[in-house]
Amino acid sequence: MYDQYAALIFDMDGTLVDSGQLHEYAWTATLNKYGIPIDRPLMRSLAGVPTKGTIEILLEKFGITATASLDEMNDFKEQAVHDSMHLYVKPTALIDVAQRYHGKKPMAIGTGAYTEEANKILALCGLDKYIDVVVGADQVQNPKPAPDTFLRCAELLGIDPAQCVVFEDSKLGLQAAASAGMAGIDVLLVHAIENDYFL
């Protein structure tokens, strides 16, 4: 199905990994702790935005003066993810695509999560053996919807961006793929994979 591409790049959360409930749990705990309202449609629209960026958007949207530093709130959320990831994460149906092209085409993860967290989640899901490169938000200057994440994946794989296909579940991610000059696959439309994140 994707034979015409030289490399496959997957977003992680909501795309290759079913982790919607993990992040909903962690965000709910974080927002409740720091007195930030939970706007479910807004949270869903921010899927793929790194933690600090999401917090900044929420504080501005609700006109809230933070009671803690961005670093503290980020660390609280990341700790909640770390402590509970084993309870929630599993591969999506896209594992079939990863298995089909394993050993035939290089594959990367381009995620808004931090690299260390991504590596742990991929290992928990048994997906790490299929992935050659993991690029997290901590590796790029500008996260999605900027193209940096996917361009870094292509660079590390040694593949021309125009020869890469990106699998994404979010509008921001698909925008990043287009900006990188890559083909984008909306996994909900093409593979019926729905991210159960703040539905």
TrEMBL record:
Listed InterPro entries: B-phosphoglucomutase_hydrolase, HAD-like_sf, HAD-like_SPP, HAD-SF_hydro_IA, HAD_sf, PGP-like_dom2
Any Pfam family hit: Hydrolase
Organism domain of life: Bacteria
MF (Gene Ontology): sugar-phosphatase activity
SUPFAM superfamilies recorded: HAD-like (SSF56784)
Entry-linked NCBIfam families: HAD-SF-IA-v3, PGMB-YQAB-SF
Homology family: Belongs to the HAD-like hydrolase superfamily. CbbY/CbbZ/Gph/YieH family.
Name of the protein: Beta-phosphoglucomutase
Source organism (scientific name): Cellvibrio mixtus
